[in-house]
Amino acid sequence: MGLGPLWVRRSAGPAARDHTATDEPRAVRIAKLDWDPLRDDIAGCVACGLSRSRRQTVFGVGARAPDWLIVGEAPGADEDAQGEPFVGQAGKLLDAMLAAVGLSRGRNVFIANVLKCRPPGNRDPSTDEVASCRVYLERQIELLAPRMILVVGKVASGALLGTDLPMSRLRGQRHTLVVAGRAIPLVATYHPAYLLRSGEEKAKAWADLCFAREVFEQIEATSA
Question: Yes or no: is domain 7-223 CATH 3.30.360.10?
Answer without folding.
Answer: no
